[in-house]
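As a warm-up, study this chain.
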Amino acid sequence: MSSEPSNIYEADGNEFTEEKERLSSFDLPTTVSIEVIGALKQGVAVLDVGAGPNTSLFNYVNLQGAVYTALDKNTDFLDRQKGAGAIGIIGDARNIPVDNGAFDITHTRFVISHLGSEKQKSIREILRVTKSKGKAVFLDYDWTTAQGSVVFEKVKEFMINGGFLFDADYGAELENEVKGSLVSGRIDSVRYPATQMTDYSQIIKLREAGTTDLRMQGKEDAALEWNQILDDLQIEADSDNPPGFYFPGIVAVTLSKD
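Now compare it with the structure written out below.
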């Protein structure tokens, strides 16, 4: 890593190749983003804050004739976005390097929950760069809605209480957090239910990112516990008739500015 990241997703090294692959190929969140953003007019400027490596939202925005800009601190993620044809800006959700009201639509998903005590700062910053009469779209998971086998419930409990990666139940607070920005406008909130899945890789590929993040915090015992839980989940996944699980629901909050 070129510098000490504030969370694992800002790292530029090879700390989480499996998670990077998972993020690149997992399109369920994009389906929700597209539904919330809706149809776009020609030339509308869209900023994706913490865009990550998945280019499917760029593809949608581009096909609509709108202009997509990806903002990310991770240069590898940004290179993938630019390789697909997106405009790329190196930046942080807590300090976005663009002028006030620069974008018609701002969008962020699964980013703010990683930012600890600076969540509200990042919300205000995203709203700052959203135009008057524009809208800001925030998405986050609520892991309290996930459910599955006894082993999967251990995964869920660890995600919520294990102290790594992100605040896994932040989606439950998202609407109140956006309201707390004190930016005037209409707020709409939609809760998308947990999704039944049999693709255990969506959980198991969190191994590298979680382990690295815990070790960065000096939580070696927790890292060992995390790996044991995922070993048990892998055994379930490899069984003759794995039961699957319900992937956590997504909360989508939109603030349409006055």
